[in-house]
Amino acid sequence: SLRHRCHAPVLEVCSGSGAGALRLARRGAIAVATDAFPILSAHADGLEREGVRVLRDLAKGDLRGSAWRQKGTYEPLLGTKFNGFSGILGFMGLPLIADRASVYRGMHDLLINRGRISIVHDPEVPGRPLPTSAQTVRSIARNLHDQGRSKTLLEITANLLMRRGILHNERRMTLDEEVALIGAVFGNYYVERHPRYREWIVFSAEKR
Prior knowledge:
The protein has about 210 residues and is an alpha/beta fold. The protein has helices at about 20-25, 40-50, 75-80, 100-110, 135-145, 155-165, 175-185, and strands at about 10-15, 30-35, 55, 85-90, 110-120, 190-195, 200-205.
């Protein structure tokens, strides 16, 4: 739905390779890609050639920090008249950020009125170890290839290991707790299955 609401810039958080921002830019949106991990740096030149605005300072793209939630962080990319995003989207596993209430408040503050967040979550079973076996990596690679979303084995393995490191000994939030957080910040929320990848869950909310 964000693709139809792009009258102001759109921010993709936890961008990874920036695929979401790239799709938006190709459809005429002013799209900004941010992340805390170097995979964004590796794709930055190509994204910028396609019109994506890339926040190259990874520390400022870290949702665990404070710079990403300040409008001034984006002025070098969007100009001094920038006053907020019409949408914020991202793909981030439920447990990746410990203080997600703060993250949702930051997103709320960055949105213009009637702006919307749309966050895709990867609903792994709480407490289940993340797979990193060679067989699993090859299986993921085959599935991505079949979907036209090929990544190298190194990229897939690095992503899984990074997530395992972040999630080590972290308490996992339930879906009910997640929507309660979003509802508390935005006063509304929507939960639906991803239209293409049915195992994923999309949380959306609108600033009113």
